């Protein structure tokens, strides 16, 4: 985290057998495109033929595809997926930012997303989504993507135009197992590119000792 702090504020969390260990920024903030993971799972349950949109939403973070998936699944089904991971936060349904999706404004902390990652492989119907989380577009494969993780990122500006950049997923520990990790970054200059650099620095630090991270309760 210290490597990233020169550029802004950041937070990280890792889930383990004794709960979530977190540091840095811990507030619940907009999930942005990370919420596409539970949406994709819920949509596949409702309609397995949605696999094309699921691939686009997860690997390329396609917003139009995510809107179609959300329409297919509905809020209650997405809430059910979140609940199965142990989260009590419902997907946001209020249009708080007219230029953005309602679901992307769901407020989640890094601890919430580490918990989601910890449970993800045990959630019914998550297998296809997890596979796609290992095929993220190279242009979005910064941060956890540099560690070969199964992950999803999200990013967007606050009302002042300052970007948040976040990721969550499962990081390989080097022995065939995965660790559940979540990152968030708030660059001081508000730039998306700086947020990417911050997550790269955080991933570099994490990568120095992945074998010491706790293994996820649910393994892909």
From TrEMBL:
Superkingdom field: Bacteria
InterPro entries in alphabetical order: Beta-lactam/transpept-like
Gene3D superfamilies: DD-peptidase/beta-lactamase superfamily
Protein name (Swiss-Prot/TrEMBL): Serine hydrolase
């Amino acid at each position: 985290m210290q490597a990233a702090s020169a550029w802004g504020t950041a937070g990280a969390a890792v889930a383990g057998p004794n709960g979530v260990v977190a540091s840095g920024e811990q507030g619940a903030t907009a999930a942005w495109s990370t919420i596409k993971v539970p949406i994709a799972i819920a949509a596949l349950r409702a309609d397995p033929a949605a696999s094309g949109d699921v691939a686009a939403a997860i690997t390329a973070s396609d917003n139009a595809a995510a809107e179609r998936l959300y329409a297919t699944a509905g809020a209650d089904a997405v809430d059910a997926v979140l609940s199965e991971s142990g989260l009590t936060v419902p997907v946001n349904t209020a249009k708080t930012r007219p230029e953005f999706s309602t679901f992307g404004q769901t407020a989640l902390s890094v601890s919430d997303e580490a918990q989601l990652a910890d449970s993800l492989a045990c959630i019914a119907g998550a297998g296809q989504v997890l596979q796609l989380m290992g095929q993220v577009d190279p242009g979005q494969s910064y941060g956890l993507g540099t560690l070969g993780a199964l992950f999803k990122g999200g990013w967007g500006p606050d009302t002042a135009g300052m970007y948040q950049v976040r990721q969550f997923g499962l990081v390989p520990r080097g022995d065939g197992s995965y660790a559940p990790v979540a990152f968030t970054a708030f660059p001081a200059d508000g730039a998306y590119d700086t947020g990417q650099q911050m997550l790269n620095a955080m991933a570099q630090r994490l990568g120095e000792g992945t074998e010491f991270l706790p293994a996820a309760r649910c393994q892909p």
